[in-house]
Every structure is written in structure tokens, then in C-alpha cells.
Design goal:
Layout: H1 3-90
Length: 97
């Protein structure tokens, strides 16, 4: 093999290595784009999760307030019922009962 043939052979190998390197670079760039997209998606999901937790906490507080209000209304109703029964007991009873 002559020097010129060896030179052509090495040149062809270097060109192939360069082409492979270009393909690897393109693949790496694609992977980086995918990672960026996933990072954005994960950030959005984390923000949504934080909002959901805050909303759940707010709803929990609202439920506690509703329970307290319901308990207060039940107590008022019970007192009203007691007063109404006392009033009924004081009314004159029809004869024969």
C-alpha cells in the first residue's frame, strides 16, 4: 500500500469518525431537549401539587368551620325544641285528654 492509499484510507476513517461524532452530537442535543421538556413538565407538576395541597388545606379549614357552625345550629335547634315543648306543656289541655 502506498502512502497515498494509506492517506486516503485514514482520511475516509476520519470522515466516518467525524460523521459519527456529528450523529452523537445531534442525539445528545435531542436528549437535552427532551430533558428540558421533562424538567418543565416536572416543575409544572410540582407547582400543581403545591396548589392542590394548599387547596386541600383550605377545604379542611372550611370543613372544620362548617362542622362548628352545624354543631352550633344543632344546639340552637335543641334549645328551641325545649322551649317549644315547655310552651306546649303550659297550654291548656282540651277536656277529655
Amino acid at each position: 500500500m502506498h502512502f497515498y492509499d494509506k492517506f486516503l484510507s485514514h482520511t475516509a476513517m476520519l470522515q466516518e469518525l467525524s460523521a459519527q461524532s456529528d450523529r452523537h452530537t445531534q442525539a445528545f442535543q435531542k436528549v437535552m431537549e427532551i430533558l428540558d421538556t421533562h424538567t418543565e413538565s416536572i416543575s409544572a407538576l410540582q407547582a400543581d401539587a403545591t396548589l392542590i395541597k394548599a387547596t386541600q388545606s383550605d377545604h379542611g379549614e372550611m370543613l372544620k368551620e362548617l362542622k362548628t357552625t352545624q354543631d352550633e345550629h344543632s344546639k340552637r335547634f335543641d334549645r328551641l325544641e325545649t322551649v317549644m315543648l315547655q310552651i306546649l306543656d303550659r297550654l291548656p289541655q282540651p277536656e277529655g285528654e
